[in-house]
Amino acid sequence: MTYQYHDESIVKALPEHTVFVFGSNMAGQHAGGAAKTAYEHFGAMMGVGRGWSGQSYAIPTMNEHLQQMPLSQIQHYIDDFKIYTKNHPKNKYFVTSVGCGIAGYKVEEIAPMFKGISRNVILPQSFRPFVEKPLPKLNEKFLKTIFRDSIVFTDTTDELIDVLALTDSEKSLAKILLNTQMYPTDSNGRDRVFEIQDILYHLDGKLFEFQSNSEGSLVFGGVILALLELYNMNEQDFSDVWHGKREITPPKPANKARK
């Protein structure tokens, strides 16, 4: 199945027939994150925590007490959304990283729930490895290919990645990494500079010498941060893979019935 993706830039306007889809709470208190954007720019209504309003659609990820919902309940509301998109095929749906901000879930927990959704839905780029091809094992060869200066520190195109000696799943991962907004803020608007500087501090001398506050090193560190989050690993794990001591298997999606 073919899916559409967006680069997770923060948007404040969309074409007339494109609906902004965000994670909400059942109380309809749209005070932060994508919910605040939906309220301020896409017609979401206070007190409406589920379904369509204005140019927006709310998928509950927190209850009326602003507590995290179990994944099984979120799956129910995402299934309702899937039905809605099929019944309203003339619209497009711009889905934010539902449940992965204030609600506190990880992308690998939420993204698989969107598998099989209608083609008129545009998903976050970070969802891609969990709705399409599985992530590959992370190994030394991949890291030393993708972190070449010509790849990380320039405007990378799909054509450039396609000439690299990578498997299809590795090419998919490379495109995800290089298109994921991480520095200086991520796709949820969170400032990640201090986290990146901490990563570079821990890896300094273990890979090669970093100029920790240079623009190039911070971009490099942003890509490493994206990998750490995708694979649920730490700096020592990354260093071990870089030096060929081990490979890292991608995490499996969490059980949907987790409480």
How are the SSEs placed, and which strands pair?
Elements: E1 4-6, E2 18-25, H1 33-41, E3 51-53, E4 56-62, H2 71-87, E5 92-95, H3 107-110, E6 121-124, H4 128-131, H5 140-146, H6 149-152, H7 158-162, H8 168-179, H9 193-203, H10 215-231, H11 235-242
Parallel strand pairs: 1-6, 2-4, 2-5, 5-6
Antiparallel strand pairs: 3-4
Helix pairs in contact: 9-10
Structure description:
With 259 residues, this protein is an alpha/beta fold. It is built from 11 helices and 6 strands. It has helices at 33-41, 71-87, 107-110, 128-131, 140-146, 149-152, 158-162, 168-179, 193-203, 215-231, 235-242, and strands at residues 4-6, 18-25, 51-53, 56-62, 92-95, 121-124. Strands 1-6-5-2-4-3 form a 6-stranded mixed beta sheet, sandwiched between helices. A hairpin with a 2-residue loop joins strand 3 and strand 4. Helix 9 (193-203) packs across helix 10. The longest helix has 17 residues, at 71-87. The protein is globular, with a radius of gyration of 19 Å. The model is unreliable at 254-259 (pLDDT under 50).
Quick structural summary:
With 259 residues, the protein is α/β, with parallel strands linked by helices. The chain is 38% helix and 11% strand. Strands 1-6-5-2-4-3 form a 6-stranded mixed sheet, sandwiched between helices.
